[in-house]
Every structure is written in C-alpha cells, then in structure tokens.
Design brief:
Elements lengths: L3 H34 L2 E6 L13 E5 L11 E6 L2 E13 L2 E7 L11 E2 L3 E9 L2 H8 L2 H24 L5 H5 L4 H31 L3 E4 L2 E4 L5 E5 L15 E5 L21 E3 L14 E5 L7 E15 L8 E10 L4 E11 L10 E14 L4 E8 L7 E4 L8 E4 L4
Parallel strand pairs: 1-8, 11-13
Antiparallel strand pairs: 1-2, 2-7, 3-4, 3-7, 4-5, 4-9, 5-6, 8-9, 10-11, 10-20, 12-19, 13-18, 14-17, 14-19, 14-20, 15-16, 15-18
Helix pairs in contact: 1-3, 1-5, 3-5
Length: 414
C-alpha cells in the first residue's frame, strides 16, 4: 500500500509533468492571441526610460485611440523616423494642420525634440502587467520552450515507455501500478501526448505570431520583426565630456547623440579631434587596434532581423585634410554571441578624391546589400570598420555628436 509521503510525491510529479507543457502552450497562445482579440498591442518593456510608470520586464498594453480623446498625462506609442516610441504626453498644440503632441519620457530631463502628429499615434497605454514581459520573452525563447515544454514531455514519455516495457522502475512507480494516482498519471500522459501532437503545429504558429510583440528600449519601441532601428556610434563615456584614449570596443545603441563638441577619442594616437584609423586593415579579422574600430550593442533582449539593404552613415576625412587623395572605408556587420563572431555582411565606400577640395568632415554612406539574417536574443550586433590599403593616407572619423551622428540604419522590411 502506498504510504502518504510516497502518494504525495507521485501525485505531485504526475500533476506537474502533465500540466506544465499544456500550461506553457496555453500561456503562449493567450499572450499571442488574446490581446489582439481585445484590440490591444502588447509591448515588452526592456528599459527604464518610462520608470516608474513602466518598469523593465513589464508587459504594457496599448489600445488604438482617437487622437481627439488623448490628453496630457496619457502614455502613447507613436511612429518616429527610426521606429516606434512610447512616452507621456506633456502638451497639446493645435494648428491649421491639426493637433500635435509634445511628449517626454518620465525619467528624461527634457521633452522630446519633435512634436507628434495625430497620424503618427499608434495607441494609448491602458494597462501594464509587472514581470509578464520577462516571462513572455523567456517562454517564447528557445531555452524557454526546451525547459518548459520539451523536457517535461521527454521525461514523461520516458517514464511511460519504462512502464509499458516492464523495465525496472523507481519504487514509487512500481508501488503506484494499481494505485488511483498511478492510473491518473498514465491517463494524463496519454491525453497530454495526444494534445501535444495536435498543438505542435499550432505552437510554431503561436511563437511566430508572438514575434510581433514590441519592446520599449531606451525611449524607442521596435518589434522583433523588421521595423526600422537606428543604432548610433558612441564613445566611452557617452555623451563625451573629455578627451579619451582609444578603446577597442565602443557602445552602439539607439540613443541619439546629444554632445555638441567633438572630442579627441584617441589622444594616445594623435592630438586631433575624432578617431584615427591607420590604413591597411586586412578585413573583418584585422587584430591591430590601430587599423580598426568596433562598436557593439548591449545584449539584445529580443531577436533583431536584418532584411534587405542596411546602410551605415559615417563622417570621415583623410588625415590632415589631405587634398586629392583617395580613401576607402570598409564596414563589416557581425553577430557576436559572447565568444565568437559571425559575419552577416560587409560593404565599402570609395572616393578617388575624398576631401574634394574641403578641409572638413565628409559624410558618406556604406550599403550592405541583400541581407536575410536574424541576430538572436542574447547576442549582440557588432560593427567593425577598417581603412583599406588602397587609401592614400590614414583616415579620421567623427561620431557621437549632434553634428556627426554616425550610425547603422536598419530599414523597415515588409
């Protein structure tokens, strides 16, 4: 006869193993479908720009609302040239062309520089659920699916196979052979297995639907699908406030530069503002720090897809404003997983007379064509630039100021 402690142990194991996969599948389905049936758009908060109204890890829900019904104090999601943003309305102005809204992040010191037109408003914040955003991100990630769905089903199936084959089983399983709890375990396994087969295909579709869930990151919101994002090149510290020595890896993020002064980013190399890169870089594998510079994002909270043509805008000059000299800048876009790099694509820009008679910074655009790649959550986007050996001199680079906002531009791809 099964004693009470073993009975409780058996029932607990059977209940957890039977319920966990189904609960996870139901959660995935609810998070993907239910908000949309209610006319809501879910946003996963991954920065503190709207704290305390929206904390990191929250799930925020937006509802489309007529612009005339919005008022100061409402938190809205709206389109910007670089994606979606979510901030609080701090003022409303009227004009011949209609209403415009002034917005501000609760933790920002100043209001946003551009007004928001009514056509740009996507929705108004109606509710938030603490922690649910973090849960949703984990459950729909590959580790989450493996841990919460695959592992319980495999363990459960192995227990069932042992039982059917008459193999030597743990004592509590042998004693449970004819116990009601054991019978419930076997019946629930059959039901779980059948339902798992039915929902397996639906689960794939559910996870695909959930990639439309959006994220609030550093004042901007962009979906894990191919919505536009701009990642700006920064120095360290940023915003720059003083000359610094050169640094192998620098930050790359969606925060637009606010500094108005271009400092010397490599006072250990020369005494001129900006960054000096020596010509002769051998490619993405170049290891001489004087012949390349890399910028890298923080660990991505969600997948970032890269589709179509990605552009890299840069301000550069021939060293000492060298006249009538050719220059070539090579750009390598890479996926960094914490230990190794995968090259996603590369491009270059060449000019036989880079300065073209000027003694100032020259804006150039490098296009990386035809991408079809997704940087997985947990990895980083890395940009590495070199000056080609064909250049007739070393080159200077300017970034992280309002005048020289060098950046990686990811377009929307439908």
């Amino acid at each position: 006869m099964l004693n009470p402690p073993r009975k409780n142990k058996l029932e607990l194991i059977a209940t957890i193993l039977a319920a966990l996969p189904l609960c996870c599948m139901v959660l995935l389905a609810l998070l993907a479908v239910a908000p949309r049936l209610l006319g809501l758009t879910p946003l996963v908060v991954v920065s503190a720009s709207m704290s305390p109204a929206l904390e990191m890890g929250d799930m925020a829900f937006m509802r489309r609302t007529d612009a005339e019904l919005l008022s100061p104090g409402n938190v809205i999601a709206y389109d910007t040239p670089t994606g979606l943003s979510t901030h609080r309305i701090v003022g409303i102005e009227g004009s011949e062309t209609g209403l415009t809204f002034r917005t501000k992040g609760d933790r920002n010191l100043t209001s946003d520089p551009l007004p928001v037109g009514t056509d740009s408003v996507v929705g108004r914040l109606v509710m938030r659920v603490p922690v649910l955003g973090s849960v949703a991100v984990f459950v729909r990630s590959l580790p989450g699916i493996i841990l919460l769905i695959v592992v319980p089903l495999v363990v459960y199936a192995a227990m069932f196979a042992l039982d059917r084959a008459g193999a030597k089983r743990p004592a509590f399983m042998r004693e449970a052979q004819h116990h009601p709890a054991g019978r419930r375990y076997r019946v629930s396994l059959v039901v779980t297995g059948a339902v798992a087969l039915i929902v397996a295909g639906a689960l794939v579709r559910t996870v695909a639907i959930m990639t439309d869930t959006q994220s609030v990151a550093a004042n901007t919101v962009a979906t894990a699908t191919c919505f536009p994002r701009t990642f700006y090149l920064h120095n360290n510290p940023t915003p720059p406030v003083v000359d610094t020595n050169s640094q192998t890896n620098l930050p790359l993020d969606q925060t637009a530069p606010i500094a108005t002064t271009l400092y010397n980013y490599d006072q250990d190399r020369d005494a001129f503002a900006g960054l000096l890169i020596a010509k002769g870089g051998s490619g993405a594998s170049e290891s001489d720090p004087t012949k390349y510079q890399a910028w890298r994002t923080a660990v991505l909270a969600e997948d970032q897809c890269l589709r179509g043509d990605i552009t890299f805008s840069v301000w550069a000059a021939i060293k000492d404003w060298g006249a009538d000299k050719a220059g070539q800048v090579n750009v390598f876009l890479r996926d960094y997983n914490g230990s190794t790099y995968t090259e996603i694509g590369n491009g270059s820009v060449t000019d036989a007379n880079w300065q073209n008679g000027t003694s100032t910074w020259v804006a150039k655009t490098v296009t990386i064509n035809g991408l079809n790649y997704t940087v997985a959550a947990g990895n980083r986007i890395d940009v590495k630039i070199t000056v080609d050996a064909s250049s007739e001199h070393d080159m200077w680079f300017a970034y992280d100021t309002t005048s020289y906002p060098s950046a990686l531009n990811i377009p929307k791809f439908d």
